[in-house]
Write a structure and sequence with these properties.
The complex is a heterotrimer of chains A (207), B (316) and C (468). With 207 residues, chain A is mainly alpha-helical. Chain A has 8 helices and 2 strands, in the order αααααααββα. In chain A, 26% of the residues are buried. With 316 residues, chain B is an alpha+beta fold. Chain B has 2 domains: 39-173, no CATH class; 179-313, Orthogonal Bundle (Cytochrome Bc1 Complex, Chain D, domain 2). Classes of the chains: A mainly alpha (207), B alpha+beta (316), C mainly alpha (468).
Amino acid sequence: MAWKFDNPLVSLADDQQNAAARGVWEGESLGGITEDNNRLPVPVVGLLILTIVTSFLVTFPLWGQRPTAALYEDYIALMDSPQVQALPDDAKRMQYIVDTVRAKGTAKQPQLDRHPLSMDDLRLIQGQVVELQRQGARMEEFTVLGNRLVLANFEGNWRADGTRERVQPWWDKGYTIDVFYIIAFCVSVIVVVKRLPPYTWQPKHKH
Amino acid sequence: MAFREYKIGSRMFAFALGSSMMITLYFPSKDIASVQATETALNRQLSFGRIGGFSVEDPFLKGQGKPVTVYLNKDPKTGSPIEPVTAYVYPVGVPFPSGLRHPRILGAGVKDLSLGQGRIADAKESSGAVFVVSAAGFNGKTLSYIENATATRGWQPSEALAAAGDANSRYIGSGKIMFVREGCWWCHTLLPEETQDWQYFGAPPMLGDFNGESPTAFGSDRKAPDLLHVASRNSSREWMTMHFYNPRLVQTHSIMPRYDYLWGEKDAAGNKIDYDKWRAEYNEYIAGKRVYAPEVPQPAAESEARKLIDFVMALK
Amino acid sequence: MLKYLFSKEEDIPPGTAAIFFGFSSIVWFVLGTGLGSFNAAKLAFPDFVTGIELLSFGHMRQVHVLAVILGWISMAFAMTMMYITPALGNTKLWSEKLGVWNCFLWNIGLGLGLFLLWNGVSSGREYSDMPWFIDLVVIFGVLFPLGINVWMTIKNRRTQGIYTTNWFFGAATFMVIVVFLVGNMPEFFNLTGLTEAYLTWWFAHNVLGLWITPVAAAISYYVVPKVTGNPLYSHRIGHLHFWSVVVFYSTPAAHHLMSAPLPEWLKSFASVEGVLILVPAIAFVSNLLLTMHGKWRMFVENVEIKYTITGVLLAIPLNMQGGFQQTRAINWYVHGTGWIVAHAHLALLGFSTFLEAAAVYYGLQVLLRRKVYSLSLANFHFWMLLIGFSTYWISMTIAGLIQGAGKIYEVPYIDVVIAEHPYMIARWVGGTMVFIGNVVWMYNMWMTARAGTPIPAGRLPHELAYER
């Protein structure tokens, strides 16, 4: 195998190897069924690249996540405020809280929309959220499970202090392995395919 | 043979398959092996026994060679009242679950406590043992561990069974065999999903909830409610009994099969169950010729129906 | 058959093993789809045949699944390997006798395994539910002899090149043995907990990914060029297909457990790899469709091409579903619903069955040297399969979306059951059509052996005019 630096992608095989391969290809019908030496059509190459890009974009864990305690911190902070207390019933109170947080603007808004709750739900978790805040816990690591807050069910990277990240990351070592794995795949396929005669040459099939 | 790509191809093949196996088998196995067993995992494996499917001790899945779960409120040795405790009785010869055979899979901490304070290494299948799940501090954290009550408290399996009596004994391990054999898991999953699903079916399991259990029987094709926490949603044994006998007695639109055949020959009172008569009466009831559905026989203590109900009622 | 078990190798006519495998596979297909239809009837009408333990849904469901996978699909694979591998190597099968024994042991072992499963003797693991001693029979009595025959035939070939189909055959027989050995470790060594759950799905994923999908594709790499007379469009794309199957199809096992407490990085990794299953799919579909260039009339006129190209076209929705339904974005909605059941049937009854049926039709005609008894019946079979399958697929997809909505919006489960009922009936109708089509097929192939028009030497079956 000789790498031609001036024209690396034409062939990794030398002329002699190519000539031998062509000779064999011409000389027999490869087990009864001839094969053509066509390249991958350009639209198909485009489709493959699109697939690889899509595969990362579409797998990030942005959907279907459970609500975390951090989501509702703003709600709970507002709960006991005089403005909220002054309102006549729970529905209006909740509406006021939601509107206020929305008006303030938060990056968590899409998740808040996906996980709406009632004033009663808030009351159930209020004490636990306040207790966790007092302990200085990482709020995004606690999942709201009905009336309970539990440590999230994820085991991410180790932190320096020996604890584990419990937030689903948008990027983790799974993706990193993927990147290397895909690169290895592409390189290997190119190496294997480049051992064939160049696609500019077509076999003459003799049946 | 010196043609084209076969030499490099076969090496590439070995490399590709090898790295794929490395990533999908070796890496995850290291991660999963480091998971610490939770209290749930200890309770589950102790109540289920060694294997929940085909095994040499139970080749035809009759529920043999499985432990009995008992609720004790008096010390089986002395007879004095104690705090109510759930004990797992392994009569002589009943195989121990994996966590006792290979304490390593319980994870760090749980393993140390079980071997140290729990004295599980002293338990022998040949003489039977009684286990309970206890908790103790380990490196500043409270962990659950398995305690060999035969060694620590002197409880003998036969004494524990006698102290509990049939009313406080549950054949959960045998029931799981029925669950697998009858294919309940083809429709009922045991896995509330990690998304909104849990609001209806209860909390999804945690990482360490399955250590030592086999098969986990999560199920994949849910045609019926998830059962991981079913007994928390519905704790009525009467409802379960009717529902197993003929689901359409309590849930008109159910598509679950009838499991009346698990009642066997005789009911709890020892009377022969007349299935033909029951079905004829039920058909009359469906046709509107009877006001009430026929009475569902109580399953006998030894019946498979009782064991299956024991298992389902233990899914909390 | 029995007389050939103890004959001398040279007394067994070439093709015997393939013919036995072919007819066995058809019988298992009829049996498997009959069970499927029966099970579907039970889901639609729960009191249909009730109160008998052996005829309850929980006892029959896994028998249907494994009869179809290990009986129909895998035996059809063995059949095609027994005649395509030597044909492509310009040689004879390495050992016809081993092939006959293989077929014999396969039928016995599978019959025994299914009988036990039917009686409830199960390991409680989906797809690997046979008890471990049956797994050992499958590995050493079924897959290993098959592999030996394929590998030795390829080694003893009288051509220099190895055609694409034979790469797949050789590699897939090897990989499926690895998959059975590794995937059944939870039973061999009583592995427990998440390891057990993960390996169960590792097995289920890879038995599809490294056995059924590549072998089915390999078959069509033979049938299309052979019947149309066109050379395969590209050897290079064949390479891309082969390598991407090995690399991308062997890795995403964890995507079956996206909602289980597995390590998150494993899910991320598997999910990306799962989308990349589209790479072999794109390579496969484009290569085959480009090979059809100039011969598209055969898609209408020729029954084998009709089956094969239908299967190839079904690979497009199959892989679009398969690639995307396992991502976190979609999986939370469809996981565990009828959508997945529809997808599984698209893979096994749509894509794979159509490719194999073509090869079994073609192979039996070539080996028996007889033209198929009735093309009308073959076409009837095709349309029963296609319409029956489509009915099933569409109804289960809709049912799955209903279930998904019920899951996410927390609808009481019984309301989902009620809403699904019409689709359960449609599923039963579709499954029954497939079953009836297969009974017709069995009759047609039997009559082909008895009364089909003989094919003169040197001619291909589809070159003969239709007589009946």
